[in-house]
Design brief:
globular; single chain; 4 helices; two-stranded antiparallel sheet
């Protein structure tokens, strides 16, 4: 179909997403987050990365403390921002970090 992405372009985007996962995992190593704990997806033109936090050093606050500057500082984290662009993100678009709690987790917290 005209305008449809080529197989090579789709492969490049998939590799860029995989690189983002690797880079995020390397940044979050001290938080106990591994690449296998990060899932990449795309919804309504936006990239989403779902991270599962496990272990004693994996807290929402420590992850936010690492990701907030990494997603904002293009000079210090150029490889991450380059991978975002290769994955289809607009270069000037801001990255947003949002916290989503699984319903099961909320139910457990309420019971405690």
């Amino acid at each position: 179909a005209p305008g449809a992405p080529t197989a090579a372009a789709l492969a490049e985007v998939a590799e860029a997403r995989a690189e983002i996962v690797r880079l995020l995992a390397s940044l979050l190593l001290r938080c106990g987050v591994e690449a296998s704990d990060i899932e990449a997806s795309q919804h309504e033109g936006q990239l989403h990365f779902l991270m599962r936090l496990r272990g004693p050093s994996a807290s929402v606050q420590t992850v936010l403390d690492v990701l907030s500057p990494a997603t904002q500082d293009k000079k210090a984290h150029g490889h991450l921002h380059e991978a975002f662009v290769l994955a289809g993100c607009e270069e000037a678009a801001p990255a947003a970090i949002m916290i989503h709690w699984p319903l099961e987790r909320v139910r457990e917290e309420v019971r405690v």
